[in-house]
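Chapter review: from sequence to fold.
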Amino acid sequence: MTTSLSSSSSKADRPDVAPPVVGRAAFEAALAEQVAREKEVTRLNDRVSAARRRLPMVEVEDYAFDGPDGPVRLTELFDGHYLLLVQNVMFGPDWEEGCPSCTWAVDTLPARMERLEEEGIAFAMVSQGPVEKLERWRAERGWSHTWVSSGGTTYHDDWGWTREDEDGVPYQLPGYSYYLLRDGVPYLTYATTARGTEATLPVAHMMDRTAYGRQQDWEDSPEGWPQYPTYG
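The token string follows.
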């Protein structure tokens, strides 16, 4: 669960409450119990990752997206690499700004994205909004990432990034798609949305390990702990 652009400023104020103070021995005993729990999570995550590496893959159409300099094929987003990570940024055709949560996620990407390239992984972002709006928002945020529009394609509908609620009103999902290029053909090997996106959000994990967590209203925190609307 990501945070919004506007909810971070109030978190800079020091809360009035704090964890109980104990002696060194009591603290180390409590910490040891927590570390044991986290090791269980690590081992489970290893098993989940092993299963992920055994997933099959499915061929994907070589969509012609709209880039700032003209059409950009999905295969071109690989930019000479064999692996591609695509962030699906929520930005509707009639929106003037990107989704606050998705924007926060992009803002917190690694400062040295070339580290991905060294591992054979290209990175790009895709949204339904027109490329002119994407470019304007990119300039405002200071992003340098490749960002293309799927508005002229069926990409978002084909792969469930745009859906309809029970009243037929379309809505979008954030998430990440992972592709493999084999013999010039793009294949989808994995995709995730909702809380699954948190694996790529280092700031969220850092917040989790502070005394107050993310300070979001969905968290199970002690009575009196500061909590703010997640998308407020």
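Two observations follow directly from the output. Residues 59 and 199 are 25 Å apart (CA to CA). The first strand starts at residue 58 and ends at 59.
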